[in-house]
Amino acid sequence: MDVVKSVIKKAKELEPYIIEMRRGFHARPELKYEEVWTSGVVVGELERLGYEVVRTAGTGVVGVLRGKKPGRIVALRADMDALPIQEENDVPYRSKIPGKMHACGHDAHTAMLLGAARILSGLKDELNGTVKLIFQPAEEGGLGAKRIVEDGHLNDVDAIFGIHVWAELPAGVIGVKAGPLLASADAFKTTIKGKGGHGASPQFANDPIPVAIDIAQAFYKVLAREINPLDPVALSVTSIQAGNTFNVIPEKAELLGTFRTFSEDVREYLVRRMGEIVEAYARAHNVEANFDLTIEPIPPTINDERLAEFAREALKPLGSIVEPQPTMGAEDFSLYLKKAPGLFVLLGIRNEEKGIIYPHHHPKFNVDESVLWKGSAIYALLAYRYLEGSK
Predict the structure, then answer these.
(1) What is the per-residue pLDDT for 389?
(2) What's the whole-number mean pLDDT along residues 347-369?
(3) Contact 391, 331 (CB under 8 A)
(4) Model pTM?
(5) Pick from 54, 159, 208, 272: most CB atoms within 10 A?
(6) How far apart are the C-alpha atoms of 57 and 110, rounded to whole Å?
(7) Residue 229 burial (CB < 10 Å; 0-12/13-18/19+)?
(8) What is the phi/psi pair of residue 320, to 5°?
(9) Which CATH number is 186-293 given?
C-alpha cells in the first residue's frame, strides 16, 4: 500500500479517537489564554507519541517531529480556544462550563490535529524534513498567532497549513482557494464632545448627536464614492450611544464599528479618510472629536497560489474539492502568512439531515463528526506531500 492510501486508511481507523477527543474538548471549553486543561491534554498526547514539546504563547503548545532524513520544515496549525456563549445544543457532550462554548469548531481543529499527530508519528521514517504542530491559543480576539510568531516558531518554517471547519460547505467537501480568502479586521471608536443643555433650548447647547449621525453617514459615503467598486469592503457602524433621557441634550456621543477589506492599501486609505472626516466635522461644528482604532488590526488571509495548486493535487484522493467564496470574517492565521507562505483550507461540516445548519458563533453551532477523520487526513497528507518535495 502506498503512503497516501495508508494515511487515509489510518485516518479512518482513528475516527473513534478523533471524535472522542473532540467531545472531550467540547465539554470543557476554555476561553482565550485559559486553555490550561486543553493544552495539558495536547502535551500528554504528543509526548506519548515521541514529539519534542515546547510550551509557548502562555497556553500554546508546539510539537516537533523530525523525520529520518533532512529537508523542509512544514507547520500545521490548530486553534484551541472557545467563545463566551451559552450552548443550546442538547447533546451528551454539551459544554459543562456555563457561558462558555466551542461555537466555532476549534475543538474539532484540535482533535483533528491530534489525529494527524498519530498518523505522522507512524511515518517518521518516511518524512524528508520536520513537522511542527502548532496548537494555538486565543484566536478569538487574543491574537495568539502573533505570540506564536513573536516566540520564533515560524522563523525556520518553509510553509504553514491550517484548517477551519466550515458551516457554509456541505459535510466532507474541501475548500481550497488561492489568494484572498478572509478579510482584514479593524474596530473603531469615534467620540464627539459638545456642550450639554436643555432639550427645549438647543441654541444654548452644542448637540453632539447630529454630528455623530453626519459622521456615520460620511463614513458610508467613502465606500460608495471613493473606493473602487471592484474592491470588496464592509464597513458597519454598530453602536451610537448618546444621552439617557428625553429632555437633556447630552455632552457626548460615541460611535463604534468595524471595517473589513482584502486589500492592505484600501485599509490604509480608510483609516486615513475616516480620521480626516472626524477632524473636519469637528471643526465644522465646533466640537471636540477623536477617531481611534480599538483593536490591533488583523490583516487579510491571502493564500499562497502555489500552495493552493499543490493542495488541490495532494488532496484529490479525499474527494470533492471546491473553490469557496471569500468571506469578510477574519482569522489571525493571516499573521503566520506574514512570516511564511501558507494555505488556509476549509472543511465542510454542514449536514441538514442531522440538523447541523447553524452558523459559526451561534449557540446551536455543531459539526458533523463523520468528517473529522478527513480533517486529520488533510493535515497529514499536506505535511507528508510537502516534505516529499524535499527529496
Answers:
(1) 77
(2) 98
(3) no
(4) 0.94
(5) 208
(6) 16
(7) exposed
(8) -60, 130
(9) 3.30.70.360
